[in-house]
Amino acid sequence: MQIDRTAIETIAQQLEPEMRSRAEAAADKIVEIKNRGGKVAVVTGSGPNIHEGVTTLIAELMRLGIVDAVTTSSAVVAHEMGGTLDKVKRCDGVALGLDPKILPKGGEFELTLMSDADLEAIARDMPLDCGLIGELRAAEGKTIIKAAGNLGYPMGLWLEHFSWERPPAWGPTSAQ
After folding, report:
1. How far apart are the C-alpha atoms of 48 and 147, rounded to whole Å?
2. Do residues 148 and 53 lie in contact, with contact meaning Cβ atoms separated by under 8 Å?
């Protein structure tokens, strides 16, 4: 692998001096630890600590042997890492009649593009708004493959419910 030192220096020059100093200190510490045979773990939470795309960078650091482990919250697994290859269709949520208060910035609503069989499998675990799914499929929009980030409907909602440590609020439980 060829290291593009010009690109690294260009990025470094854009950092505030304090941030550049922190990045250099962290890199020096990682090199020191790896040189003595130690292990490096990334400990991160959700929200501002880890952002869309960062998970792919962490994965690359793991592939290269720089990072040996990652520990994080279930929110990161469900929202960030779970979406590493989510194919979605982005549609104008307001044009579809969705309340702007429930939409993310920019007003786009995302539908995870999946087969009818996959939708049926999810529907066995939780209620789906099939009307909304049909409207989203028919609506104008842009199809993208997201490299991390929150997942589209219904996959993101399903993963949140799937990650619960208790049975969902709907349907029979194993105790019944």
Report:
1. 17
2. yes
Domain residue spans of the chain: 5-78, 85-162
- What torsion, rounded to 10 degrees, do the Cα atoms 156, 70, 57, 88 define? -10
Please give the chain's pLDDT, 176 residues, in tens: 688 899 889 998 999 999 999 999 999 999 999 999 999 998 876 654 556 567 778 888 888 899 999 887 666 665 555 545 678 899 999 999 989 888 887 889 999 999 999 999 989 888 999 999 999 999 999 998 875 556 788 887 787 777 664 555 555 554 44
Write down the residue that tokens 């100093």 correspond to: 21
CA atoms within 13 A on the CB side of 49: 10
